[in-house]
Specification:
Helix content: 10-25%
Number of domains: 1
Strand content: 35-45%
Number of strands: 11
Distance between the termini: 34 Å
Number of helices: 5
Length: 234
């Protein structure tokens, strides 16, 4: 298996809530999920090669192995805003509702390692498409492509990588931060993840599980928490 190792630099605050949260609440994830990464890649493929070509490449995108090394530090800020919702015609007033928002600020690059046994797909399709990705998730922050290189060696946990596709085992008692992950089912088909013409009853062909991110709480205060990657901890 070969790996495309790509770096993205943050250019805005990152915010991505799990799909089971409501529009008025829910904590933000620290890093993008495999589902968000695959959907970002599919979007770039559709724009670069057309819909039919992207559909043909969907199995390769779905079956990518994804490992991630998060930024050195993530500062999460939680705020409360007042949201104007439905307009009430009898009273001619907007309905106001409090909403909770979380934003993550990255210090350092977000590194992804995308592994595939399809070398032709990796060289001819995946690597030329990666520079076109500029955000992750429906409400995610914007990123700037920084560079990509090929590697034959799988990324290791000693280098700060975590396998985002591997659910946490019950006997894994290591130190870190738990995060809810979402990924496509192994048998997912393109119509199930198609957000324009797909079947809404398919729920995006998602599967949910938890992973342990190698982070520790560096400091915390009122409505703010700062996380540091474990391999950088003193």
């Amino acid at each position: 298996m070969s790996w495309a190792v790509v770096d993205f630099l943050p250019v805005a605050a990152f915010s991505l809530r799990p799909s089971n949260t409501t529009s008025t609440g829910g904590r933000s994830l620290l890093v993008p999920t495999p589902y968000a990464i695959r959907m970002a890649l599919l979007k770039a493929l559709v724009e670069a090669t057309g819909l039919e070509a992207a559909v043909e490449r969907f199995p390769e995108v779905r079956d990518l192995q994804i490992r991630l090394r998060g930024p050195d530090v993530v500062a999460v800020n939680r705020i409360t805003q007042m949201l104007l919702r439905a307009f009430d015609l009898p009273t001619r007033h907007w309905t106001r509702a409090p909403v909770a928002r979380e934003y993550g600020f990255y210090a350092g690059a977000l590194r992804l390692a995308l592994g595939s046994t399809a070398d032709r797909f990796l060289h001819e399709t995946l690597m030329p498409t990666l520079p076109a990705i500029n955000y992750f998730g429906r409400r995610g922050g914007f990123f700037q492509f920084s560079g990509v290189h090929l590697s034959l060696a799988p990324p290791s946990s000693e280098a700060g990588f975590v396998d985002l596709c591997l659910p946490l085992r019950p006997d894994d008692l290591g130190y870190g931060i738990l995060q809810r992950m979402e990924d496509m089912r192994p048998n997912a088909q393109f119509p199930e993840v198609d957000t324009i013409r797909g079947d809404p009853r398919s729920a995006g062909a998602r599967r949910s599980y938890a992973v342990r991110l190698p982070y520790r709480v560096m400091t915390h205060g009122h409505n703010a928490v700062v996380y540091q990657r474990l391999d950088l901890a003193p």
